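Good morning C.,

I know you're traveling, so I'll keep this short. The sequence:
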Amino acid sequence: MCNPALRQALIAAHRLLELARLRRVRDRIDREYTRPLDVEALARDADMPPGQLGRRFRDAYGLSPYAYLTVRRVEHAMALLRHGDHGPAELGRAVGCPSTAVLVARFTELAGMPPGVYRRLAAAGTPGLPWRVTAPVPSSSRNGEATANAPHLALLP
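The tokens, ready to paste straight into the viewer:
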């Protein structure tokens, strides 16, 4: 039997290694945001099963890997709109969004306005225009994720 102090030290060391792996996953998403998200490949590189990666990533960063990727894409789209005149299709391709409709929907949801309105306000030099995503990021219904605080089981009396 292991003494309690040693056990705690081993748990802490394991947690630090896990956080380092999660940081590498996050950094990879930051670098490769224009590519499709392959959770299996990210999990393989992090030496975790995909489900565990999703749970641990959400615990560490507050978002699933897919939601984090979506935020990065919208923030890059914001930057492109502030510095140029991109149409929705061109913008979608530039940030790796699977379709123009998906980009417009996610952009509107996270930036609080459609990309065209954002572009016009940026061109006019409107003060207070968001440069980063500030809205809460909803869980993706695409992959059936539940919100972090949603109960999975109801307890019977």
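Safe travels,
E.
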